[in-house]
Design brief:
The complex is a heterodimer of chains A (88) and B (301).
Chain A: H1 3-17, H2 45-57, H3 64-70, H4 74-84
Chain B: H1 21-34, H2 36-52, H3 54-57, H4 61-68, H5 73-100, E1 104-106, H6 109-116, E2 122-126, H7 132-137, E3 145-148, E4 171-174, H8 180-191, E5 195-199, E6 210-215, E7 218-223, H9 225-233, E8 237-246, E9 249-258, H10 267-287
Parallel strand pairs in B: 1-9, 2-5, 2-8, 3-4, 3-5
Antiparallel strand pairs in B: 6-7, 8-9
Helix pairs in contact in B: 1-2, 1-5, 2-5
The chains are: A mainly alpha (88), B alpha/beta (301).
């Protein structure tokens, strides 16, 4: 899967499954932060994010260390997925 | 003596222990070589001194004001002494459980085993009541146990599973102040089919999902994240309150078992569940007024 395709799939899944109604797809870039400012996710959303990544890309986020690295920004999460996707 | 650690620490609360490291060690040595009785004799004087120190006695003021309607004078001193005496006794017995293996826990593990067999893990939602850490020792054969609680460098009193002979395990601490990392760890533990222990009566710093519910006659803020987690993970959530019923003897009560529907996320959707929890806690506190150890003003706006 191409990087752009991962980005688009991820953003679409997040907007619908996390009910981010106030955020427009076109406003998001790879630099967008996931928590706090940016997408404004809170810590409990991280559980849903783990589920989304596993469901759509078959990539597991195993522990807090991995989550801290992967959730730095949208772009970092895309790289994390790209590196670990089966068959990539 | 320490302020009991909890899953959800408000910003002005710290898990920092009262007393210095050597003072805690002194009690551990006393317990190891002379047993509980001499340790309880020393504890009496420690509790008395704490009750005479306004800053320390004041930590129980919010609760005692709500529960007994008094926050000063002889009545307040009487209640605060009974409360701290019970708390100190439980902390001693917690150490005795770890050091001497001396404890008994009645009822509970059969319920837990049935829930664990479902393979989704179990969220145990407790409160700062009774002798939950001694009860934890009774779960030593239930596989992985994860406790969500803050722990800082000044928290010098040892938990039951940190003493050599306790053999409670494997127990892992998950730091709630880790934000997203904390919830990822909880999710991973539940996926492994393990037990995750959370406290339902204290909010995390900046926790958005705080629900205002009636508790002991006034509106109080309780956290709702545990119920959202149960909805997201579809893990069964069991409310468990422990009660000290005698020397080193603990009884577990399981007032609620909740199977959350999927998709419960908002404060509005979760408020009924939080109210149910608060109601059960209130019933417990009415029956066991000196076993509520949440030294934090739940009713502060």
């Amino acid at each position: 899967m191409e990087r752009r395709e991962i980005f688009d799939t991820l953003v679409k899944a997040m907007l619908t499954e996390l009910y981010l109604e106030d955020i427009k797809e076109e406003d998001l870039t790879e630099d967008s932060a996931l928590f706090g400012e940016g997408l404004g996710l809170d810590s409990i959303d991280s559980v849903e994010l783990v589920v989304i990544v596993e469901k759509h890309f078959k990539v597991a986020i195993q522990d807090a260390d991995e989550a801290r690295k992967a959730f730095a920004s949208l772009g970092v999460l895309v790289s994390f997925i790209q590196e670990r996707m089966p068959g990539e | 003596m320490s302020a009991t650690p909890g899953a959800c620490a408000p910003p002005d609360w710290s898990s920092r222990s009262l007393g210095r490291r050597w003072q805690h060690r002194f009690f551990y040595v006393l317990l190891r070589f002379l047993g509980l009785k001499p340790a309880r004799f020393v504890l009496f004087w420690v509790v008395l001194v704490y009750c005479l120190r306004p800053k320390i006695a004041g930590r129980a003021k919010a609760y005692l004001r709500q529960r007994f309607g008094c926050s000063s004078g002889a009545g307040f001193f009487f209640h605060v002494f009974k409360l701290y005496w019970m708390f100190g006794s439980i902390l001693l017995e917690r150490a005795a459980a770890g050091i001497l293996g001396k404890y008994s826990v009645s009822s509970g593990t059969d319920i837990l085993w049935k829930l664990l067999e479902e393979g989704r893990g179990v969220i145990l939602l407790g409160a700062h009541v009774g002798a939950w850490q001694i009860a934890l020792a009774g779960l030593k054969n239930c596989g992985g146990i994860n406790i969500v609680q803050p722990r800082n460098g000044n928290d010098v009193d040892l938990h039951v599973f940190e003493h050599g002979s306790a053999r409670v395990g494997p127990v892992r601490i998950i730091d709630p102040e880790d934000g997203a990392g904390c919830f990822v760890e909880i999710h991973a533990a539940l996926k492994r089919g393990e037990i995750v222990c959370l406290m339902g009566d204290r909010r995390a710093p900046g926790e958005k999902l705080a629900v205002e519910v009636d508790f002991l006659g006034r509106k109080a803020l309780f956290p709702g994240s545990a119920f959202v987690l149960a909805s997201l993970t579809q893990a069964p959530l069991a409310v468990v309150f422990t009660r000290r019923v005698g020397e080193s003897a603990v009884e577990c009560a399981w007032p609620l078992l909740v199977r959350m529907p999927a998709g419960i996320k908002s404060k509005e959707a979760v408020s009924g569940y939080v109210s149910g929890f608060a109601r059960q806690l209130e019933l417990y506190v009415m029956e066991n007024p000196y076993q509520f150890f949440n030294f934090y003003d739940l009713w502060a706006s």
